[in-house]
């Protein structure tokens, strides 16, 4: 595999910022389909793909979320063109006979629910990270959020499916004049070991 051009690395990492304000510009539904079609290609443990995604695009759907948001997140979240709920399916293992037919993995999880829950949480979080990078690759800005009531989101949006919310990602196009300088990051020697 060849390295990406420097311009792509800059778009994905160096120039990307968490938006402070959004342009009044719609995110086309076809772009959300394209986004998911990239996210689904990323690896997960045993191809388990527990991530499930709900795109709140209509004002009614976003307003329904209001009561579940932490106070400091309401304005930025509800002004975003799209709010994606990154969730996990606790019964993801029911799809494994189709997703990983070479081995009998379903029973690993069906017979050990704590292991299944841990796997679903880890891998849906991983899929959320892929989601951020895929969105940036498609030219979208992303504002990740964990300040919300998961139980309330689950009851508002996933009662029928039984999914569990993990994190929220606001999507759209940032107002460029609202971008701040990046906050400090730990240096390699502060965060890494070479063993």
From TrEMBL:
GO terms for molecular function: oxidoreductase activity. It comes from the Bacteria. Coiled coil: none annotated. InterPro entries: Nitroreductase (IPR029479), Nitroreductase-like (IPR000415), Nitroreductase_HadB/RutE (IPR050461). Pfam families: Nitroreductase (PF00881). Residues 17-173 form the Nitroreductase domain. PANTHER family: MALONIC SEMIALDEHYDE REDUCTASE RUTE-RELATED (PTHR43543). This is Malonic semialdehyde reductase.
């Amino acid at each position: 595999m060849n390295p990406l051009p420097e311009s792509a690395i800059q778009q994905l990492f160096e120039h990307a910022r968490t938006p402070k304000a959004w342009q009044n510009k719609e995110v086309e539904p076809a772009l959300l389909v394209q986004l998911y079609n990239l996210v689904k290609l990323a690896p997960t443990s045993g191809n388990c793909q527990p991530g499930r995604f709900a795109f709140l695009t209509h004002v009614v759907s976003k307003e329904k979320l209001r009561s579940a948001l932490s106070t400091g997140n309401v304005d930025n979240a509800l002004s975003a063109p799209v709010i994606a709920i990154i969730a996990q399916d606790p019964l993801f293992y029911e799809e494994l006979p189709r997703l990983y037919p070479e081995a009998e993995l379903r029973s690993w999880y069906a017979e050990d629910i704590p292991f299944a829950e841990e796997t679903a949480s880890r891998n849906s979080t991983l899929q959320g990270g892929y989601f951020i990078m895929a969105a940036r690759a498609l030219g979208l800005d992303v504002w990740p959020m964990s300040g919300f009531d998961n139980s309330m989101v689950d009851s508002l949006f996933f009662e029928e499916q039984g999914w569990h919310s993990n994190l929220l990602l606001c999507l759209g196009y940032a107002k460029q004049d609202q971008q701040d300088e990046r906050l400090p990051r730990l240096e390699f020697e502060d965060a890494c070991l070479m063993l």
